[in-house]
Design a protein that fits this description.
9 helices, binds fe (ii) ion
Length: about 240
């Protein structure tokens, strides 16, 4: 199939799209909308009140509010397409669609790694939608990406503070060891036929493996910057 280069500008136009397009779009939006709740459901109760400084508390509260707002924006897009995702907000973390959001954030280092590494994966997924062939989706992405950049920056500040001491750095390394392979998994399997279809329909713009490779190159710089070691990217993972 030749790549699809047209756009769907409205819900009415979407409804006239081929079934394969509709199925793919609704599937990825369901995951995206669910994943926006992943962070807040992990740290609102556990870390906002327990954060080490008032500034950290403020940042986590702001980040959580923005994630709920991202979720709400995706729910609205889906509601306009007659799909009701309001049930997702009532699902606890054990029901999150992606594995990474089902794991608790036990330490403050986990919180920092979550911001610096996992929000960044979210940023990759979202930037893939910036030129999405469904225009109402593409339109909301720039503002969301601006907010995601702040979440990532806060994660990096947490890591920077912790990595000032050997003890703190060891704690960060443990969190990275646990979360990094799962972050790589979040891009989906290599050579996926579904991933090819997303590209062909102009819903996403990078294959799973290309996005993962770009992410890995970027994170290797962060890992080096903080004097950490990159965990074996293949250990226990499912994406190959
Ligand atoms: Fe978000
Ligand atoms: Fe975020």
């Amino acid at each position: 199939m030749a790549p699809f280069t047209d756009k769907f500008a409205t819900p009415a136009e979407f409804q006239k799209a081929p079934q394969e397009y509709k199925d793919l779009f609704l599937k990825v939006m369901t995951i995206q909308s669910d994943s926006e709740l992943g962070g807040p459901h992990l740290y609102v109760e556990k870390w906002i009140l327990a954060a080490p400084t008032a500034e950290d508390q403020m940042m986590l509260a702001k980040t959580a509010a923005e994630e709920f707002d991202h979720h709400r924006k995706f729910v609205k897009i889906m509601a306009d397409l007659n799909v009701d995702l309001n049930f997702q907000i009532r699902n606890g973390r054990e029901k999150r669609m992606l594995e990474i959001f089902r794991m608790p954030l036990e330490t403050w280092a986990d919180m920092g790694v979550f911001g610096a590494f996992i929000d960044r994966v979210g940023g990759y997924h979202l930037s893939d939608f910036a030129e999405c062939s469904y225009l109402p989706m593409a339109k909301i992405i720039p503002q969301i990406l601006k907010e995601e950049a702040q979440h990532i920056a806060h994660g990096l500040r947490i890591l920077d503070t912790l990595c000032q001491s050997d003890e703190g750095r060891a704690e960060v390394q443990q969190s990275v060891d646990r979360m990094y392979p799962r972050a790589l998994d979040m891009f989906g399997v290599t050579g996926s036929k579904t991933s090819e279809k997303y590209l062909n329909w102009g819903i996403k713009r990078r294959s799973n493996e290309n996005a993962r490779n770009e992410y890995r190159a970027e994170m290797q710089k962060v890992i080096t910057q903080f004097g950490l070691q990159e965990p074996d990217p293949l250990k226990g993972r499912h994406y190959l």
